[in-house]
TrEMBL record:
SUPFAM superfamilies: Trimeric LpxA-like enzymes
Protein name: Streptogramin A acetyl transferase
One protein family per Pfam: Hexapep
Record keyword Acyltransferase present: yes
Organism expressing this protein natively: Mesorhizobium amorphae CCNWGS0123
Family recorded in the similarity comment: Belongs to the transferase hexapeptide repeat family.
CDD domains xrefs: LbH_XAT
Length: 212
């Protein structure tokens, strides 16, 4: 078994709603790992336009998505370009409309709202209509429930839900999580992953470690 080509745009014949994003997104401020896919009945081709919002290159923030992530229909990544200055009485962005309103605007009042890159680890599952806010890091193996709004970092292998999303359950105990992070199967060569699929999709950590 060699596995599918991670660079192919539509890896499932006759099922064009699913696409590997690495071959579909070429924005310089977006980084997507192998085999991560987006599933949308309207097709995955417009992922960057529909799902990555307020992402302007001049700001400098990046969206980094790891390998083997599953992103459901309607997920949204709100980037730092959506932020408004909040240190004054009004949050209205007068300056962007020009005609004199830009005069006297202190760019530092806005730039201090920048919260950094948005990062998804490997093997993350993002549920339908979930919203990921700017600067959030979601750990390896985490699950974000449908319609959740993620405003803070998510630990590896946590399940989060709600608005604002909170940890409702850990998928595994702390020791197992540490062992999974050490195994880091997503970094194995594809042929090794293919040979050990049952260990990866199973629940026997010793068997997975034996494959390392």
């Amino acid at each position: 078994m060699s596995g599918p080509n991670p660079n192919i745009k539509h890896p499932i014949p006759m099922h064009m709603r699913v696409g590997f994003l690495k071959g579909l997104v070429n924005a310089p401020n977006v980084e997507i790992g192998d085999f991560t896919y987006y599933d949308d009945p309207d097709g995955p081709d417009k992922f960057a336009e529909r799902c990555v919002l307020h992402h302007y290159p001049f700001i400098g923030d990046r969206l980094i998505i790891g390998k083997f992530c599953a992103i459901a229909e309607g997920a949204r990544f709100i980037m730092n370009g959506a932020n408004h200055a909040m240190s004054g009485f009004s949050t209205y962005p007068f300056n962007i409309f020009g005609h004199g309103w830009e005069e006297g605007f202190d760019a530092k009042t806005w730039s201090k709202e920048i919260r950094g890159d948005t990062v998804l680890g490997n093997d993350v599952w993002i549920g339908m209509d979930a919203v990921i806010m700017p600067g959030v890091t979601i750990g390896h193996g985490a699950i974000v429930a449908a319609k959740s709004v993620v405003t803070h970092d998510v630990p590896p292998y946590a399940i989060v839900a709600g608005n604002a999303a909170k940890v409702v359950k850990m998928r595994f105990d702390d020791k197992t999580v540490r062992r999974l992070l050490m195994a880091a199967w997503w970094n194995w060569p594809v042929d090794k992953i293919s040979r050990n699929l049952n260990a990866i999709r199973g629940a026997d950590i010793a068997r997975l470690e034996a494959a390392v």
